[in-house]
TrEMBL record:
GO terms for molecular function: acid phosphatase activity; metal ion binding. This is Purple acid phosphatase. Residues 51-143 form the Purple acid phosphatase N-terminal domain. SUPFAM superfamilies: Metallo-dependent phosphatases, Purple acid phosphatase, N-terminal domain. Pfam families: Metallophos, Metallophos_C, Pur_ac_phosph_N. Coiled coil: none annotated. It comes from Tripterygium wilfordii. The lineage of its organism: Eukaryota, Viridiplantae, Streptophyta, Embryophyta, Tracheophyta. Residues 377-435 form the Purple acid phosphatase C-terminal domain. Gene3D superfamilies: 3.60.21.10, Purple acid phosphatase-like, N-terminal. InterPro entries: Calcineurin-like_PHP, Metallo-depent_PP-like, MPP_PAP, PAPs-like, PAPs_C, PAPs_N, Purple_acid_Pase-like_N. It comes from the Eukaryota. Its cofactor is Zn(2+); Fe cation. Its EC number is 3.1.3.2.
Amino acid sequence: MAAAIWFLIALSVYIAGPCNGGVTSYYVRKSSPSVDMPIEHFPPPSGHNVPEQVHITQGDHDGRSVIVSWVTPRKAHSHVVKHWAADKCNHKHKTHASTTTYTYHKYKSGFIHHATIKRLEYDTKYFYEVGHGHETRQFFFTTPPKEGPDVPYTFGIIGDLGQTYDSNSTLEHYMSNPKGQAVLFLGDLSYADHYAYHDNRRWDVWGRFVEKSTAYQPWIWTAGNHELDYGPEFGEPVPFKSYMHRYHVPYKASKSTSPLWYSIKRASAYVIVLSSYSAYGTYTPQYNWLQEELPKVNRSETPWLIILVHSPWYNSNNYHFKEGESMRVMFEPWLVHYKVDMVLSGHVHSYERSERVSNVKYNITDGLCTPVKDPSAPIYLTLGDGGNIEGLANSFTEPQPSYSAFREASFGHATLEIKNRTHAYYTWHRNHDNEPVAADSLWIHNRIWYPEEED
Ligand SMILES: [Fe+2]
Ligand SMILES: [Fe+2]
């Protein structure tokens, strides 16, 4: 009898793990590196100069503009996008793009066009067309509703996507959910830098791969370390060169001086994008901008304050452990003061959700250096689980720290369904399940309008 009891105790320790914190899910189906899909899987569209790699993002601060970007491989012409409201197809408007090219080592880009379509109506479906003559392509998007405190809106959340078969599974899972209206992308796009001389053909392939989503709904871009493309040893010393030629964001609309940090309003959310790989110390441009930005957020207009930053501040994986620590030290007191609802990060290739904790009391001499529960603190979500070529980060620190509520090394994506000013329903979907299955879920309570602890 005693032996049986000891067996049951030992079995329960084995299953649950030696945890002090939340749940560590040992649901791991795959730990080997993922394999990139062959370049030949994503050929250019057939034709001489057919537009490709089409993607859209928000083009202003409040959602009435859209930046349409595309590449023409051989000639700059045409650099015009036509658009029309779905119910007014006789009324077509033209917008001229700015066009750029760049070289990277021995690679030469196609003609990259960015056009900002302005003064759109809210909550309206538009068609748009790029290309020339018989080589045109048509797509559509829907503008967001006008901002307001109780406007429902659903974001998809994807990080560290890459271009493997797992990446494709993540994207297909997200797209099979009809609720997602825009994607909050958490950095690390193509992983072209995995290849010799950062083979920039992989940037083109990535643009073709994600077009099935990015051409139809805005992706809000965050820069990760794989966007640095820093290669001084082969004559490429300019950080973010490829990324910044290819992905434009409306940074000037939020008085930012760099496309690497900016903000947008969308429906009932205020989204602030930060850069882990730009200076953020006192007096730096990013520091000064964020200091002036946070007091501007009107939570009566946009109750949900969400921050995107590539490298997580609270994460308990051994991979990249504490890489976000210095930025946390700089900015966490502001985020607690302004009651930020959520911080979304990527970088660590697994999934983790934190408790609402802060670690802002420490002053070197007082010894108060442990994160504590704090109702004014954001929830930190790590979603570096898009499925890239580096594979899963499947080594968690043990025991699980008390700030960690749930963690699992699986690929997947999340959705955030904002219902009104008080409640949003958050779900995480692993690729091994069918999309409707939520492996982790939580009703999130707004920090200003309903600052109660989540169940
Ligand atoms: Fe990263
Ligand atoms: Fe990554």
